[in-house]
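Methods — Computational structure assignment.
A single polypeptide chain was analysed. Its primary sequence is given first, followed by the predicted tertiary structure written as structure tokens.
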Amino acid sequence: MKVQENEREIYEKFIKLNSYVAGSYDKGEDFEHLTNEANQLSGQESAHRLFYLALPPSVYGSVSELISKHCRPKSPGWLRLIVEKPFGKDLESSNILSKHLSQFYTEEEIYRIDHYLGKEMVQNIIVLRFSNRILSRVWNRDSIAAVNIIFKEDIGTQGRGGYFDEFGIIRDVIQNHLMQILSIVAMEKPLSTKGEDIRDEKVKVLRSIPPIKPEDVVIGQYLGDPDSKDPDRQQGYLDDKGVPKDSTTPTYAQVVLSIDNERWAGVPFILRAGKALNEKKAEIRIQFRDAPGGMFDEEIRQNDKDGKLARDELVIRVQPNEAVYLKLNTKRPGEMGFSIEETELDLTYGNRYKGVKLPDAYERLILDVFMGSKINFVRADELEEAWRIVDPILAEIDKKKMPVIPYKFGSVGIREAFDAAVKHGYIFRGTYVWKDERSVSSPTKESPKSEEKK
């Protein structure tokens, strides 16, 4: 546990409040013992109780049933159950789990936790969208060309390959984290900030998404980098203990979704996630359509005969270094004529909100459970819709019917995925230079790798 020096004293006080009770996952008498211990510690039988199932999914059924049967407090105490992902492995197993939980708990008692919903920038999407008229007026297919939601890790499975091989990157990241972000980016304006109103709109937009087609999917699996000096980066996915040598489980995937409603018809939503890449990053890129007309074509083509005016792009950086910035075109300072370069309106949280502590996602969410707020938790019908969208393609992957493209540890990504994004309308020009690297006097073109820095 990471403890700052100035938190040491309160940490020690917290540790003294903790107790440990040993028991089995499937024995009712052990849960009776647990509730007796809880009553003794609280000095009453009606104290509120919160259970967090950070457990192997295989025991969710027995543990949740025995908690409900043996560990409920007397009225007016409440019981709340936090369920950690994975919420099943496919649509069928997820529905079985949901049905099982509904036999012993009301939906109000169940908190399906996805820690991405507790991240500062994910929570900020709702405020950015619905409190700023300048954005709400352009948040539609008339102005937006493509939406790209990206998750990147610079580490491999690191000994967790046996667990990861059961799920793969689509189940582990895309079906939950990225699908939740998509639903917030794309939903209609809720009636209020109440949890049910927000979750109702999230479900509506998920219902508008057809199942993913095989032709809209690119998957890959990382290889070791023999030239790296880092032993971990020399290891490929198949070198991880517990991973079968013939495994085709993807560690990288890109899926392209469509939303069949009036606001988003024709706009591709590109969800991309991968392990063992060149950096750790999660972000949302809202790319706007080309500016109409050719007013600046002559100036642009003086330097590039095939050049076009760059598209505006709103980027919401979820992690690390939380930020919101708008990429746009401006006149290059000090030059004659209309020389144009890409720049940004930048809200980097570390610069604007110096000294402000951003709580960890789990801190926020566990506090939400104490407060009874369900805004940032996944409802059963949300979960069912998310699985419905990915289920057919998971079946194809599990049957090993899709090609798995190898990529080297530390790569930017898979070229075929980038090409597919371009085919669907997302344009990457490679000409944007982040402000810390920009030289006013000598603008330079940037490589795709440099774009990843911001």
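Note: The radius of gyration is 24 Å.
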